[in-house]
Design brief:
The chain is of the alpha/beta class and about 550 residues long. The chain is about 30% helix and about 25% strand. The strands form five sheets. Strands 7-6-5-3-2-1-19-20 form an eight-stranded mixed beta sheet. Strands 8-9-10-11-12-18 form a six-stranded mixed beta sheet, with helices on one face. Helix 4 (about 100-110) packs across helix 8 and helix 5 (about 180-190) packs across helix 11.
Length: about 550
């Protein structure tokens, strides 16, 4: 690659909310910014996580100088263990980020037994040489401590990846975003801004995180029974505010959910969370305390299938049983795409008899992403020559592009891209290049695979129309049926209304085998294929459904 050409390749986060990952390439060398994941949609049956496609990086592993993580949320950090495993942990590049971010990354890699990877926390303002790049982190405010924008300097110019941010003037923890450094970068000249688009559809300024605490306390004061608060496990600021409100009202606190306990422990060790002496109660002790003395902080604000709150809502949690009179507080808003799962959880809670408080009912949540005026402020501070909106679905990318136009950036210098479509910049200008391999990888249990895998298609078919299993026994010499076929069906809708269907299927199996024997078909594979085609057509004709048909032919 030409040394005076900069290439920015989004592998995730464009046209979607989640799995953020951006490859910055210069002089043949690469820095990866963020390695995020997202959670599966309802049609991804049995899938646990969705990752970016690492194929491009796997082929270029020796060219990667570093991986830089902007902050510790799953949609920016969660895919790191899977990426390092794909690249080969022994040859993996070093990983950089803020102090809390690296502590969370270390915890995540330990779970995956990836302990030989180099993890280094970098202080904002500290500069590091990475091959042809200089790396600097700029302190930003978000809904987790140690959030940073990433500045990558090259001979051609500076790339600024904002990460998730808001311009909160009264943050709960630490100073506001480093506006002076952003303005200084603007004066020095920013070649490309890759900007967060999450709230490009929300006018004005986002409310301060500090405003949430008093409102939580008001909600708690009105609750007579137990209080269950759910938020992102990584929203350490919010956990602190819940603890403070509980302490003020004389309530004990119990942490429920593995990721909640783990992140609070990390936050405490780094001084981001302070828990009053004796305030914590173990989940198994919750039932021993008076109802007006307990606050439970739980995972599950997004309706995740295996989360603690979802299990409580379905009376499936082994330690916490919800009941009438409990107050459940959702101190988070649904990520776009998760609305249905959240609504289902809320409905189950009402069915139990809980009082449910959401951000629609009280100002108990503040977004960690800046609204329209903050996005404009970022554009005006850094005055980029080119803009690449990232971190948003196509609607939000479009709106962010319009904001760049509104503050005076030439529309021809604003690029609406998508995953796998690189932006290439040289001394003559910028243009979108040829698409590279991108897409999704699915995690099912501990294995990862291609989404085109037939297993997912089969799961959809099974979930919709069920399965027929037909066992036929044939003569090895003649191919004719020598025993009555056996028919087993599971999950086939309305099967009880199809009188005598099993008997008719057995007859159809006999006819199909007889035709195959007459045609001289002897190979097991061919016999099973003919049985499959004949039975699938027969069952569809009778039921107007397409269950999976699984024929098994046994020779004797």
């Amino acid at each position: 690659m030409n040394g005076q050409r900069l290439r920015v390749l989004p592998l995730g986060g464009l046209g979607e909310i989640g799995k953020n990952m951006t490859v910055v390439e210069y002089d043949g060398r690469i820095v990866v910014v963020d390695t995020g994941l997202r959670f599966p949609t309802t049609d991804m049956l049995g899938i646990d996580l969705v990752l970016p496609d690492f194929g491009y990086l796997r082929d270029r592993v020796r060219d990667i100088e570093a991986i830089v993580i902007t902050h510790g949320h799953e949609d920016h950090l969660g895919a790191l263990p899977w990426l390092l495993r794909e690249l080969g942990a022994a040859a993996a590049p070093p990983v950089y980020g803020g102090r809390l971010t690296i502590a969370m990354a270390r915890s995540k890699l330990d779970e995956h037994n990836l302990r030989e990877v180099s993890l280094d926390d970098l202080q904002p303002g500290e500069q590091l040489e990475l091959g042809p790049f200089t790396l600097e982190l700029v302190h930003m405010t978000h809904s987790i401590p140690d959030s940073c924008a990433v500045v990558l300097g090259t001979r051609l110019g500076t790339v600024l990846v904002t990460g998730d941010y808001k311009f909160d003037q009264t943050p709960v923890d630490g100073p506001p975003a480093d506006v002076s450094r952003l303005a200084e970068l603007g004066r020095e000249g920013v070649l490309l801004l890759c900007g967060d688009s999450t709230n490009a559809d929300r006018p004005g300024f986002s409310p301060s995180e500090r405003e949430v605490g008093p409102h939580l306390e008001e909600v708690f004061a009105r609750a007579e029974g137990r209080i269950i608060v759910t938020s992102f496990a990584s929203n350490i600021h919010r956990v602190q505010q819940v603890v403070d409100a509980a302490a003020t009202l004389g309530r004990k606190v119990s942490l429920v959910g593995r990721s909640m306990r783990k992140n609070v422990n990390i936050g405490r060790s780094l001084g981001h969370i302070e828990l009053p002496e004796g305030i914590l109660v173990q989940p198994q002790e919750v039932e021993d305390w008076p109802e007006h003395k307990i606050v439970v902080i739980s995972t599950g604000s997004q309706g995740e299938p295996l989360s603690a709150l979802r299990r409580m809502a379905h009376n499936d949690h082994r330690l916490i049983q919800l009941r009438r009179g409990d107050t459940v507080v959702f101190s988070a808003t649904p990520i776009p795409g998760n609305e249905r799962a959240v609504n289902e959880t809320v409905d189950r809670l009402y069915h139990i008899g809980c009082d449910v408080i959401t951000p629609r009912d009280a100002p108990i949540h503040a977004s960690g992403h800046g609204y329209v005026e903050e996005l404009k402020l970022m554009l005006n501070l850094v005055k980029p020559r080119y803009v690449l909106p990232v971190h948003g679905d196509h609607k939000r990318l479009h709106l962010h592009s319009q904001l760049a136009d509104a503050v005076g950036i030439d529309p021809s210098a604003v690029f609406r891209s998508e995953n796998g479509l690189p932006l290439e910049i040289d001394s003559h200008g910028a243009a979108l290049g040829e698409p590279e391999q991108s897409g999704m990888i699915f995690v099912d249990g501990v294995d990862i695979g291609d989404p085109a895998d037939v297993a997912l298609r089969d799961r959809r078919m099974l979930s919709a129309d069920g399965i027929f299993i037909v066992v036929a026994t044939v003569s090895e010499q003649t191919g004719e049926s020598v025993a009555p076929p056996e028919v087993i069906f599971r999950g086939v809708p309305f099967i009880e209304q199809a009188d005598g269907l099993a008997r008719e299927i057995r007859e159809e199996v006999e006819h199909s085998l007889a035709r195959a024997a007459q045609d001289g078909v002897r190979e097991i594979d061919l016999l099973q294929q003919e049985l499959h085609d004949d039975l699938a057509a027969f069952v569809y004709d009778r039921l107007r459904r397409r269950p999976m048909v699984l024929p098994v032919v046994v020779e004797v």
